[in-house]
């Protein structure tokens, strides 16, 4: 390789591996030039300084990185940021909005002491917020009975909460209190 | 991870053109499996053609009474769709038995069909695997293979297909719609995935550059009693050890139509044709169900450490058949 190439960081055509992408994160627009390999989780934590979403397994198996994209809960470790151009992202930092009041799910986790080490908590809270919205929108789960009518809001009992939050692992085993907290905020 | 070019396609033609223009490209759906495989170094695409914004995100009723689900419909939305829940309950149940709420919100219909095996040898680039790297051997054959195939495997590959959804589609006689350089075609879902034979690197019958555009659920199985049951190591959020989808139509006291497919026992959803043939025309009794399932599973060739799958699959099938047949007749 000649010295000219060594000194030029743009020796590779930039459009081949990087693109400009615009995301709204917790209500604020951000336009960044991202490496195509950048997953949303790393963009949030490293480019935007939002360290609420956690890197647990980095393979979509633990749920610690859960955030809301366009209002739906997803694993941010498995989403390339470039593919989310124009999307609305909400992280645990943005759930409460601008005021002093915590989101009801955050408040319930505090009231129920629904954590031990706390590492999985932001993912648990975002997942619970997403799960409550899904049930309200009539999304069934693996344990929803066949008699529950299609398209109607699904009532969440303990079994439903446990099933719907099964994508969030807690190494400490704080599950009973997590389920308590979610039960507290069921409308 | 190796760097790659990124192209967002706005139409099916744009997607297939971009794929053709970029050697080494992969289509990107929800990414729940592909992104992980890229992190693991199993997949190293030179380009990703993002198909998630194609106008294939609706479930529509067709004039002939069938139901078409676009390839980019998310698994959670397909499972919740009233027409799917009411007319093809096995499909909704299978989708909801898979993955987690977060993953189902991202995963697409097309991507679910194209997900790769979770065989640990396939996912570890330091291990031999004929599927990942033809000619290197099969680590699982004499290795850790408790989760592997008991039917239709070869000495080249003993992996299973991990999808729950595909098992229900096979039992329901769904078809997979494809668009590629040579035009459009459709393939029965039960024939879409392959057995490994000498070429385990090929999971499906898809041609290079072809894009799944949707799946069609036929009018013939709409509204028939159907169900999906899955056994796994934990109560939720785990791949199947064995699973079964059953469609059962009774008329005049006998079985008029039976669709039975097993999951997690073979390189593809295992459509139990011998059992179905034995059941059609028979009275839906426990004895008839046992006879039919035993006929099918007689072909099983368990590996050293997975013989448990055969009685497990048998009991799952008998349970679901018994539940779908009215109690008075069994």
Helix proportion of chain B: 25-40%
Report the β-strand fraction of chain A as a percent range. Answer: 5-15%
Sequence stretches where pLDDT stays below 50 over 5 or more residues of chain A: 1-14
SSE ordering of chain A: HEEHEEEHHHH
Apparent shape of chain B: globular
What is the N-to-C order of secondary-structure elements of chain B (H for helix, E for strand)? EHEHEEEHHHHHHEEHEEEEEHHH
Share of helix among residues of chain A? 25-40%
Most extensive interface, residues per chain? A-B, 44 and 37 residues
* Biggest sheet details of chain B: 5 strands, antiparallel
Number of helices, counting only DSSP H or I runs of 4 residues or more of chain A: 6
The oligomeric state of the chains shown is heterodimer
Across the major sheet of chain B, the strand order is 4-5-8-6-7
- CATH class (first level) name of the domain at 225-329 in chain B: Alpha Beta
Secondary-structure content class of chain B: alpha+beta
Mean pLDDT of chain A: 92
């Amino acid at each position: 390789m000649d010295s000219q190439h060594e000194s030029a960081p743009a020796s590779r055509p930039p459009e081949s591996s990087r693109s400009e992408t615009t995301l709204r994160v917790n209500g604020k627009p951000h336009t960044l030039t991202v490496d195509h390999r950048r997953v949303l989780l790393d963009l949030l934590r490293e480019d935007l300084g939002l360290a609420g979403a956690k890197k647990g397994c980095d393979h979509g198996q633990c749920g610690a990185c859960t955030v809301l994209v366009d209002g739906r809960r997803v694993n941010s470790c498995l989403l390339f940021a470039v593919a989310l151009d124009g999307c609305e992202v909400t992280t645990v930092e943005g759930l409460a909005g601008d005021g002093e009041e915590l989101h009801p799910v955050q408040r319930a986790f505090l009231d129920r002491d629904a954590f031990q080490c706390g590492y999985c908590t932001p993912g648990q809270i975002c997942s619970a917020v997403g799960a409550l919205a899904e049930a309200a929108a009539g999304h069934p789960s693996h344990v929803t009975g066949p008699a529950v009518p299609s398209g109607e809001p699904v009532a969440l009992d303990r079994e439903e909460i446990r099933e719907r939050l099964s994508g969030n692992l807690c190494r400490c085993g704080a599950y009973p209190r997590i389920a308590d907290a979610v039960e507290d905020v069921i409308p | 991870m190796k760097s790659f070019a990124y192209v967002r396609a706005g139409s099916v033609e744009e997607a297939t053109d971009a794929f053709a223009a970029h050697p080494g490209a992969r289509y990107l759906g929800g990414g729940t499996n592909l992104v992980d495989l890229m992190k693991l170094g199993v997949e190293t695409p030179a380009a990703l053609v993002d198909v998630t914004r194609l106008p294939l995100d609706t479930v529509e009723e067709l004039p002939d009474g069938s139901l078409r689900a676009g390839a980019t419909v998310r698994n959670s939305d397909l499972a919740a769709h009233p027409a799917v829940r009411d007319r093809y309950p096995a499909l909704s149940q299978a989708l909801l038995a898979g993955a987690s709420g977060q993953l189902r919100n991202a995963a697409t219909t097309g991507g679910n069909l194209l997900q790769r095996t979770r065989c640990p040898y396939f996912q570890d680039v330091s291990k031999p695997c004929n599927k990942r790297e033809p000619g290197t051997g099969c680590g699982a054959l004499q290795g850790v293979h408790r989760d592997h195939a008991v039917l239709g495997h070869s000495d080249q590959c003993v992996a299973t297909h991990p999808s729950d959804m595909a098992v229900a589609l096979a039992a329901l006689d769904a078809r997979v719609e494809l668009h590629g350089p040579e035009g459009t075609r459709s393939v029965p879902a039960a024939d879409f995935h392959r057995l490994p034979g000498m070429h385990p690197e090929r999971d499906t019958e898809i041609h290079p550059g072809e894009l799944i555009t949707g799946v069609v659920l036929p009018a013939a199985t709409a509204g028939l009693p159907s169900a999906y049951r899955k056994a796994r190591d934990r109560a939720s959020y785990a791949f199947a050890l064995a699973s079964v989808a059953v469609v059962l139509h009774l008329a005049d006291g006998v079985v008029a139509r039976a669709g039975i497919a097993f999951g997690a026992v073979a390189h593809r959803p295992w459509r139990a044709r011998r059992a179905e043939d034995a059941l059609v025309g028979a009275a839906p009794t426990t004895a008839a169900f046992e006879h039919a399932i035993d006929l099918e599973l007689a072909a099983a060739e368990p590996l050293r450490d997975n013989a448990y799958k055969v009685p497990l699959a048998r009991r799952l099938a008998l349970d679901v058949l018994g539940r779908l047949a009215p109690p008075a007749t069994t």
